[in-house]
Hints:
By secondary structure, the chain is α/β, with parallel strands linked by helices. The protein has three helices and seven strands; from the N terminus they run E-H-E-E-H-E-H-E-E-E. It has helices at 8-21, 62-74, 95-100, and strands at residues 3-6, 27-33, 37-46, 78-87, 106-113, 116-126, 131-137. The protein has one domain: 3-Layer(aba) Sandwich (Cytidine Deaminase, domain 2). Strand 4, helix 3 and strand 5 (106-113) form a beta-alpha-beta unit.
Amino acid sequence: xxxxSISPEARELMIKDGKDTxxxxxxxxxxxxxxxxxxxxxxxxxxxxxEGDQRRRFEISPLAYMKAEQYALENNLxxxxxxxxHPNHPAVPSVHDLAKAMPYFSYIIVSVMExxxxxxxxxxLNEEKGEFEEETIF
Length: 138
């Protein structure tokens, strides 16, 4: 099982973004260093560019991905993944999340129930099985 640590600042930013964006989904990137334990030191919000109903979907523009990669290079960080919120739903990946997942990234999901933070969980795609596996957060 993969292990991940999240700095208090990065965790708080993700939670705040989820609460502030409720009832829509928020999204953003997180950065840090990859090793035996994936260490997240920084999270950055991005605009949910999904057309239409953002309560059940998020989309990150190709330009935002490009800027995130550039930011990582300029700051000697590794782009480790994407976070997003699930308004009034559990922090479990949806079929849509699975369809959009990339192999290397971690995917943090922030569950926000009625505008209040519920739980934060992290997932990584197992390519061989074609499914997500939960990462241990500490």
